[in-house]
Specification:
- Strands 3-2-1-4-5-6-11 form a 7-stranded parallel beta sheet, sandwiched between helices.
- The protein is built from 9 helices and 13 strands.
- With 321 residues, it is α/β, with parallel strands linked by helices.
- Helix 1 packs across helix 6 and helix 7 crosses helix 9.
- 44% of the residues are buried.
- Helix 1 links the parallel strand 1 and strand 2.
- The protein binds nicotinamide-adenine-dinucleotide and uridine-5'-diphosphate (UDP).
- Uridine-5'-diphosphate binds next to helix 5 and strand 8.
Length: 321
């Protein structure tokens, strides 16, 4: 536990969201102070409600496309809608959040001379021709499709981070996050894990897009956040990018069948059209993370992680009636 003398004040943008709220829990648990900046677009105060009387926590309602003046020792930049439904709702704002938002947060880090972490994404690889994806792969991304506001926004953010690093000597850490799931996902965000669980709990049809043969590799949130903290503490001069995720790959049909079984649901499976530019396969090569993060490995398998997530959505349903 850090003390008054050793603790840091840390800014987490997007901290009211799924990943951000788990990150904040870990930072506070180890004794740090946290300032969360979030415009509450997809995040919710419910994710932070348990912290409201914690004297080391502060929530600012703030849109990072506007400048922010705070004094902190480290920044985690997570603000950005992450699910296709949310990021396609206002695609111009999505690009602005990645590009203007990054410029603002990088400017802040430059003034403060502090380390800054960027939540980038496996989407920078697009529909990949290399499998599994290594950090050296440049990707196969459509620049003008419905996913481009997110994919290209995040790619431009990476460019900005690396240019601030080269041009201004800024201490950056760029993580490419692969599909992550767990408690506090938004129940209506349309992402596959939350969709399938909510549908299964209601005994409604499970919607598989396309054949269900497309693959994803799902990481449980606790494993991911552990990697964030370790990456942030790697030596200066190691900027990444670094893949973070779980390399065990499943088809979407396998995921649907596992969710139905674990929920004990009467749901049937229905097929829907595959969205435009939906990647066919996704699996991280995590050799770099294994080597640099002190033997870090995902430890929670899909069935265990789904069990915890199902429990969360069950409780949410009870609360909301
Ligand atoms: P989320 O939607 O739950 O959280 C994003 C948060 O950012 C929300 O609280 C939202 O209100 C906030 N936000 C959005 N635009 C903002 C703005 N302009 N100013 C301030 N706050 C803003 O999503 P998440 O899954 O927690 O994702 C967090 C980050 O991790 C995102 O940057 C996302 O791109 C990245 N990521 C997530 C995954 C995943 O599987 N969850 C995978 C790859 C990358
Ligand atoms: N998907 C699906 N049914 C759903 C939601 C998603 O079959 O109800 C598919 C989607 O087409 C994609 C995969 O699940 O192939 C993962 O989708 P998600 O939006 O969770 O993540 P991303 O495509 O960004 O990896």
């Amino acid at each position: 536990m850090r003390t008054y003398a050793t603790r840091k004040r840390i800014l987490v943008t997007g901290g009211a969201g799924f990943l951000g709220s788990h990150l904040i829990d870990r930072l506070l648990a180890r004794g740090d102070e946290v300032v969360c900046a979030d415009n509450l677009f997809t995040g919710t105060k419910r994710n932070l409600y348990h912290l409201h009387s914690n004297p080391r926590f502060e929530l600012l309602r703030h849109d990072i496309t506007f400048p922010l003046f705070v004094e902190v020792d480290e920044i985690y930049n997570l603000a950005c809608p992450a699910s296709p439904i949310h990021y396609q709702h206002d695609p111009v704002q999505t690009t602005k959040t990645s590009v203007h938002g990054s410029i603002n947060m990088l400017g802040l880090a430059k003034r403060l001379k502090c380390r800054i972490f960027q939540a980038s994404t496996s989407e920078v690889y697009g529909d990949p021709h290399e499998h599994p994806q290594r950090e050296s792969y440049w990707g196969n991304v459509n620049p003008i499709g419905p996913r481009s506001c997110y994919d290209e926004g995040k790619r431009c953010a990476e460019t900005l981070f690396f240019d601030y690093h080269r041009q201004h000597g800024l201490d950056i850490k760029v993580a490419r996050i692969f599909n992550t799931y767990g408690p506090r996902m938004h129940p209506n965000d349309g992402r596959v894990v939350s969709n399938f669980i909510v549908q299964a709990l209601k005994n409604e049809p499970i919607t598989i897009y396309g054949e269900g043969t497309q693959t994803r590799s799902f990481c449980f949130v606790d494993d991911l956040i552990e990697a964030f903290l370790r990456f942030m503490d790697t030596e200066a001069g190691f900027p990444g990018p670094m893949n973070l995720g779980n390399p065990v790959e499943f088809t979407i049909r396998e995921l649907a069948e596992t969710v139905i079984e674990l929920v004990g649901s009467k749901s049937t499976i229905v097929r829907m059209p595959l969205p435009t530019d939906d990647p066919m396969q996704r699996k991280p090569d995590i050799s770099l993370a294994r080597a640099k993060l002190g033997g870090w490995e995902p430890t929670i398998d899909l069935r265990t992680g789904l069990g915890k997530t199902i429990e969360y959505f069950r409780a949410l349903q009870r609360e909301d009636g």
